[in-house]
Batch of 4 targets.
Target 1
Amino acid sequence: MAYSNNKNNENFEVIDNKNHNEAKTLKTESNKTKESNHLTQIAWQRLDDGSYSPSSYINRDLSLLEFNKRVLAQAASPLHPLLERLFFLIIFSSNMDEFFEIRVAGIMQKLRLGDVANSPHGMRPSEILNEISAVAHNAIDEQYRILNEDLLPELAKADIRYLKRDELNSDQSAWMQRYFTEQVSPVLTPISIDPSHPFPRLVNKSLNFIASLEGKDAFGRDINLAIVPAPRSLPRVIRLPDELTDGKEHHVMLSAVIHEHIGELFPGMNVTGCHQFRLTRNADLDLADDVDDLAKALEGELENRRFGDKVRLEVTTDCPTEISDYLLNEFELHDNQLYRVNGPVNLTRLLFDFNIPALRYQPFTHVIPKAFRRDMDKPEKSTSMFAAMRKGDVLVHHPFHSFATVTNLLWQAASDPKVLAIKQTLYRSGTNSEVVKALAAAARNGKEVTAIIELRARFDEASNIAVANYLQEAGAVVVYGIVGYKTHAKLMLIVRREEDRIRRYVHLGTGNYHAGNAKAYTDYGLFTADPDISEDVHKIFQQLTGMGKPANLKKLLHAPFTLHDALMSFIDDEIAHAKAGKRAHIIVKVNALTERRLIDKLYDASQAGVKIELILRSICCLRPQVQGLSENITVRSILGRFLEHTRIYYFYNDGDERLYCGSADWMDRNLFHRVEVAFPIEDKRLFKQIYQDGLQNYLQDNVKAWVLEGTGRWYQTQPSEGETAHIAQDYLLKTINRVGESG
């Protein structure tokens, strides 16, 4: 099936497409069978204006879908502990939800405006949707195969079971009956479908049941169908009492409880069928650039997110065709927007807090850098971190280093009588954040606290509004950033009076000020008292809270003003060195690469002889290893225990090496539509540490690395015969946290 724009109807229809691409398999191929001796043959060409033809680029959305498939592959990998594999399966579900809510919904909107190719890759919206449908259906089928054939049997061996209704013994069935009567039934609201009760407006991603009925209700009406929404207040996974399971981890799904007893909701009628389903809607927010009150406008949009345009319908495999067709018609969706799943329709709610260490990753201690540990032993503890920063820059590498370095600095600043002001950006922090509590305490203690809170951080909008209100009540000045430009930079500035002079202390990071993220994401943070960097950060905060021309910065690169031009210039320098016969080398580690001008410049550099190594977590629109186009470019992605999030830009620069860390990916939105900061690493010791641990270490990974071909396909590496296995994240755990050492 395929999408086609219908000029006579604002909706799109489904047409047959005999030449539709076959769904790609998710089975990975090793480098032994996949590596070839020649570069990928791609029909590309250089255009008259110096740009490259559409075939030179990979579609962004298909590349993101490939990343989700790599996440799914972790759920099938025995290299991860069993419960971690289950967690990867759930992450895949969450990623796919967002993919449909944001990316697919956006493409569908473009299709309604006309099926025209207007992006670098040259694909029309209908072509992209066709390909997404094929790949996504196959990936979701594989997801449930992994669940049913791999994970559930292995969990059962560990006495972790999700029991089906027919697997319960009599005592367990009696308990489930009581649970339904006491806990579930009182909050259920069955809704009949009849002329006086039209089909209800269902919330995005909510669990619902459609029941087919026979007989007459209390008013003598013939009711054939009813909808039963499952309240979100009810847990989706319910642990059976220890006395019924001998203390084992046995559970039932809420869907099984409702299904088993749904007849009790329709007394006097016969329930002939009951089927769970879930509807996914467009969840992107649409805010005008000229709103008068961003917070109020955002609160209104958050309500609309729950009821956006429909983009996907999920039902179980046993749902009759007449029921699924009825739902498709009701939601104005088409066959290839229907996903039949062999299990619960919402696996994101499958996770339960199992306390079984043997089935999880080995815990480790998040260490404090030596510079801060030494000074914390001194009597003047309240000023120890400031003393350490005056001695020199301090680098932290999360999650291997503790996020307490950040919160400790804030708490010290909050209580230090010499501290006059604290300024900080908050993109995602969480409502129960030590960072936020410390800022509030500082404001109550009379410090001048300014928080730049980005209310539009996707899916954290409500949390950020709550944080803003909390800080304002504590006396902090809260600024929502610049309308039209998300404030994504990670900046903290502390102003302190010392011996009749003002000194500034700064923290800059690649990741959010979020303790949970800092335990799961890899990120760098730099603590510095460098006067030039401190002055640059001061100017950026002035720009964010006031008005005026772009700040003239000495060391920091600043989007949307100087960062993109600087990166282009740095690549040009490498091109010039290569053409002069000198060594030229670029290494970039970011989450995504989509910006066309940077891609084109990297193509130019490759053709000039520059060696380019890209470490990209998710999206890559560049085609590497294409003859004549990108022979000197390699692209790899690392998927392991932690989510790779560090952003590092390295340029050899004829021996005068440049190395920056920053908040920006190489995407249009980061470089032109967000406030971002990249900061130089000037301390030689820290430079070497990041170059080795953050770049070379990842280039040496031959177990958890995936390599991109010019065709857009990824394959997983494995050690060659006789080669020592190297896992980048394990290396860092061993060298920084001493994980795996005896004694």
Target 2
Amino acid sequence: MTGTSISRTGARVLVDQLKVHGADKVFCVPGESYLSVLDAFHDVDSIQLVVTRHEAGACNMADAYGKLTGKPGICFVTRGPGATHASIGVHTAMQDSTPLILFIGQVQRSSFEKEAFQEIDYRQMFGAMAKWVVQIDDADRIPEFVARAFHTATSGRPGPVVIALPEDMLLDEVSVEDTPPYAVTQAYPSPNQLNQFETLLNQAQRPLVIAGGSTWTFEATQLLEQFAMRHHLPVCSAFRSQDYFDNNHPLYAGHVGLAINPKLAERVREADLLIVLGDRLSEATSGTYSLVTSPVPRQKLIHVHPDALEIGRVFQPTLGIVSGMMQCMEALVTLPASSAQGAWTEWAGKARQDYESHIFPGSISSGVDLAQAIIALREVLPDDAIVCNGAGNYTAWLHRYFKYRGYRTQLAPVNGAMGYGVPAAVAAKVVHPERVVVAVAGDGCFMMSAQELATARLYNLNPIFIVVNNGIFGTIRMHQERDYPGRVIGTTLANPDFVTLAESYGAYAERVETNEAFRPALERALKQSVASVIELVTDPNMISPSTTIQTLRGG
């Protein structure tokens, strides 16, 4: 234990623990159930309280913070409706393996089990959605539970922790010491595993690396590049992990996820050794478990993951290694250059050629061609720009045509959560106010969190929001046109005037209706000191980068 034991309220003890463990940002929507905690924050200069307009936005911002920093994103919401609104952020953090701690105000202890106002049993509600769920009924145990929460959220496979705080417990006066700061615990590859790794690598004729998942750092990605160059290995990114390897590098082979390059998909199938670093091989990355078959892959599989329970859970690997990514890459870069690497030169070169061919579009569509807009983004934005998105068919253009050049320049939800891009961009600006931040959002995705423009205004932040307006829920319409032709229902949108809406929040706004108009609009937005919204009017017929609604209808 550390510090002196002085009498403090539970609320003060809680905020002091956040300071001990290095929290510097807290995202919240204020609530009466944790009013005493808000008061305790009043006297703390080292923690910035970021007040959002919706609990989903607050928890998504905490998730984005966790992705950007590797530290737990901290979110506070009130009981009942506040917690249910915030649950999307917990689900995202779990499937994305993001460190996050959600604190929820709770009814007073004497009201438990009476269905009191806004009462929910959070152990049941979040039990299958979080790494750990706890309710602190004794203020003396706040330091213990908060230390465990930070450790749990960051160690092994990172993820969300949920802590319920009974309102009256926070008012109890207790004398308890602070704990020391938390420390992250990760496993390392064993010498025997490294020997097996080296043997499998030397035996391979068509090896392929897939990097994704969690516990990466900038230093770990640099070691990954060294490892790939030493052995001349083609490297792919897992779904929404495209910033783990410089897309301009000659060994980068593309994105293994939704709307994958068909040639890359075939290359994954043809590989005789898959080296999967950090990723779970989720449904999106594994091609619905067809590119990599479950339970036994057709390829030899080296699966490195920080969670022992993940190894062998879905895929039976040839070699399973439990390790954090920094610990893994520090070990892998010590392996001598493979005796077979000369035979991989053509294999890696062809993979790169296929990637380069895939990121240049063919014919230009009417209105704003989204491919041309994304190409303009990759040509205009600086290398360290952070690009955010939520979910929808518009993301297929972004993932295909944009080039991510550095670690943590992509913020996107692996769990496919709509409404993520806008709050993620706000959080990115909170964390990195000096960097350019751009959110690309469909019209459906944008309207799920547009109110966070007010948060950007409150904190004088200037992210750029690009709204792809085609007037439909694009992903669902595509599936609808394919599976139920001629029976369109429920996928048409009635949108506001996005320029007027943005201006009402104090943002700079433009509507773009031609390809030629986008780049000048983007350059003007980059000069603004306030948030900017650029509405792109696109043709709904262009339902994906590779097909149209007319084609799906057989026209």
Target 3
Amino acid sequence: MIRRVSLLFISIWLLGCSNRSIRETGLVTERAMVVSAHPLASAVGTEILKRGGNAVDAAVAVQFALAVVYPDAGNIGGGGFLVLRQKDGSTAALDYREKAPAAAHRDMYLDEKGEVIKELSLKGHLAAGVPGTVDGMVVAHQKYGSMPWAELVQPAVQLAAKGFPLTKKEAKKLNEERKDFLKYNTRRPEFILKNRWKEGDTIRMKSLALVLTQIRDRGRAGFYEGLVADSIVAEMKRGGGLITHQDLAAYHSVWRKPIVANVGEYRVISMPPPSSGGIALVQLLTISADYPLGEWEYKTAKTTHLMIEAERRVYADRAVHLGDPDFYKVPVEGLLDTAYIKRQMVGFSPGRATDSDEVSAGTPAPAESPNTTHYSIVDSQGNAVSVTTTLNSSFGAKVFVAGAGFLLNNEMDDFSVKPGAPNSYRLVGGEANAIAPGKRMLSSMTPTILEKNGKLYMVVGSMGGSTIITTVYQIILNVIAHGMPMQGAVNAGRFHHQWRPDWVLSEWGALGFGTGIRLWLMGHKIAPKVSGGIGRAAGILVRPDGRLEGGADPRGDDASAGF
């Protein structure tokens, strides 16, 4: 008993305070803005906007720049989702999520006893899905781009060829991953030519520059055909992976109908399946709209308890009902039905935590070490793009394509490797997300755009695996319920509950001493997360005077840029 009480008070102490100001205002610009995970990538996107490019042009340039300067999540060997709102109010959603290779099968990560083989879906060649990023950028540019393709890829070519200085955080991450790079690569990659990286070191990636040159000059064919495709397939053969020339040739991005829902005075535009983010976010915001969170105030036990209980129920739905809509009939309309969402809160008690064993997915009416990255863009015409892209874990499968210099994803772990068994983020999945050839794996990525009174209001998204949804949810509430500026909303401490396991993950200072005690007395199990933080978000808020305010996450090297 003494040990339990001691652990409680250690936990509460860890949750006691935060140095980040929730009233801080971020960079404010008059016409256009880019917020991304790296200052150089934000600068690249801003330069494209200054030259007359639109939000999609800037998104393409930022995506390729991040593949160079932020290689743990920025990528050409992964995939992602793009949500777009045009200045006339029209919307679109592009799914360039990775797919399972044709040789993949349901039990490929299980042993002869049917048990999950540790890390097989997480590290090494067999963890990689067919990359979608390059095709996604080509498809987005073909439909909405205005500048020549080559001009958008060229900044990334230059960054890779000429080199760039490492930030302190990036140098630390490269050093930490050195052992895995040596273990899982068939040939020694450029990243470990140096024994130890430090802040300010210049890193050049000549092999990646050559690959980006192929993409610049040949578009989609520069990646999915020819020398680069040959390099990917050769890497698979050396390491026992599955991706073939046929898999690469067959990959195509898909335009999907965005999740669009009215919640109070706001119109939410977000990503549909195979992302779980849009549906889950709308469910969370719809639940919250029934309660006076503004009156209850930020970081009180009453507000936090309600949010945790909403998160618990929404993640139960996610585990059962969501998957690739091309393989599984996702009950989208039923899950978004307001009456259904409210029924899920029937067992909610204002004074007691619900045991997750008492919570299960409902029956709606028929009709993701997390490392991802997000960038938000608004151009001078009023077009907005929200993009979340990923390799899944930090540095993906830890595998570089030899001679090409880019990392492969480990997105196969986002499938339900064994229905009912947790993945690397301890998320539980079911039959809807079981492995199948050519199938896209379920995601938590939540690129989102909000309107208010018919006008663009907010562009937001985050990295963070399974915590992405709750990060975006909390940032939005910080602005619309608690009146924070964009930067303050991003700064604010975060917490997370995902149904299973049954505990609240919390950043340092996210709850505070008094709230932490009250939640514990209600029956909540609190597990502080001190290092790394929860999520890394990028947001843009349209202020009442029409100017743009950026929210760049202090948890990383994120930066806002604009004019």
Target 4
Amino acid sequence: MRRPGPVLIAATMLWSVPANAQQGTGSLPEPPQAGQGREDGGETGSDPAIFAEPIIVTGTARRAVPLTTPSDVDVIDGADKDRIASAGLGAFARRFAGVDSLSTGDQVGNVVIRGLSGNRVRVLSDELSLDFQQYGIRHPANIDPFIAERIEVVRGSSSILYGSDAIGGAVNVIPKRPPAVGRGESHLGGRATFGYQSGFRQTTAALTMEAADGPLGAVGTLVLRDSGGLVVPEVPNALETDNPRDPLVTGEVPFTDYVQQNWDVSVGYDTAGGPIILRWEAYRSDQNYVLPDPPAPGSGDPLRPGGLGQDLENDIVRLFGEFDLDPDLVLVPSLSYVRNLRIAGAGGADPVPRSQLPEGADIDILRENITARIDLKHGSGFAGLDGRIGAEAVFIDQESFGPTALTPGGTINRLALFALEEARFGRFIVNFGGRIDYIRTEADPERTAQPDFFANVSPELLEQEYTIVTGSLGAVYRVSDTFSLTGNLSRGFRAPTIFELFVNGVHGGVAAVQRGDPTLEAETSLSSDVSLRYDDGRTRFKITGYINDIDNFIFLADTGETNPGGLSIFQVDQQNAALQGFDVEASHRMTDWAELRGVVEYVDGELDDGKRVPLLPPLKFRAELELTQDRLGPARDAFFTVGVDYAAAQDATSIIEPFIQFDTPPPPFGTASTDSYALVDLQAGARFGNIDVTLGVENLLDEVYRDFLDTYKIITLGVGRNVTVSLSTRF
């Protein structure tokens, strides 16, 4: 994985920005059309010191470049994306300022945007909202980042376009589209990739094929991942040292293995009016989570690690088109079906590993989702405005099998109307929009396997309805072709999930009992940010400050009680919350072959009663120095990066922090709080003929550390020295 590199922290604050595909001239007043080069008539990328600025599509009124939109969007694509080996989406997004990864091994990397995660960050597959039961902090986004052609990350509320769960931002995984060629012409090509990561004992093999015959095209990707499990520094564990802050297990960590088979196939036909595309994306993951396996009372057996198994399946079938009704009007209708299945073993004593699934399943939840959406994108011929208007209908059916329901069966229906528009007044660019949502959530005892699940819930509370109106206003002032000032004011919302309303049982993956509240109100937020952006092609920086006030913030809090098995009991509650912070990213190309980049980020937040908002990342600095050469002997496109990643210490000070019970022994191991650390990474690569070779070492010094946003901190350490290799060839 390509991470930032060793530069003085002071230099980081003066210069730098994460390595991404957004480096550009900053002088493009309008997004270029396909095939266009720079405004000066030169070929894009012909000057090694100048980079084409990307066109962004996520969270914006229309296609735009970063200096011309209020939205705070970053993009990763091309070689930058290919150099990251992780199966977790968070590893790709975390390279940007204000964005982090909530991880559990390599297979789980949930995106954290400015302190918000889970049901407050909407994950999209080509702008289709995914629903992967993200109420669990260890439930990964059921999508393989390898299939993406590009990944776009939007910071700040995106509720106008994407509705509930986008209160903190959105991540759009955009796959490769089927190719099309002229009539009578044909095309066939592909790419094969093999990779290995020693820190996870993981091999990855992937194949992408694409073909076209005139207007008919197809593209498909198959990804196979097989991990033997996490490897951390082998230091004495808590049972050997009697220090309760030490981990329970080190070295080769058992029950952290996983196997994945994921694929994506699209077929398209390019009509005279625009393309029609049918896509099937599938995600299959069988994984273990390592948990403490406490001895039965009075047995005399020792405490040891155990394995909790989980099988995940997710299928997306989507039919959509993009039809040019006239030069200023594009109609985008879409119909999608999503099937999501989660099968998990029991937690507590004697947890059930994946080798015993599905027969030993304790939790079995099936969600089926049908989404119909229509967008009408228009140019300035429509009342002088550029933007989009649309409608969306979502119908979700959930069924809960297994002896432990945890979350019930039921239905969730959503209806929405929205519009996001852009107006230009000389150097001012203004975006504004509005949305109205109706959401109905109904728990159904007949779809819930556990008969007494609703014993303490009044029948009239089984159905909840929410009608919510939201709006946004953003502006850009172009001081010059290279410098802009931006500001945003957005009203976002999030409806309580069926899990938060009715959860009632042991959630083995987080070692706790969880209980819901059917009287929850919808979350609403008022978020604001201001930003300074500069980009002259060599030097680039962005400084952003933000405030996010959230009414009725929903969280799980430790009640201080335990069940008969000794598991802590957490209760869903809500209060108002306020988050504020800043992020800085900058880069400077010192020569045509050397570039310095860096990131600084900080966020803090508290509830009305003074308790800290849970799962906030610590203060972080990231920096990287990259050296590149177009030609180096037989090598082409050679690069070498060296980086440092620093995180400050972070204490878990609140009863609402997940795993807070591990800071007050018993248990005699683990911690919810973490110390500061710094990791050094190296990576190098080049193309030899038609083969791309990438070699890297993460955590070069084999640092002993724990990341505050790593849920394995309660039982083990962060990954040790991780040697990575990747070979890729196109044909």
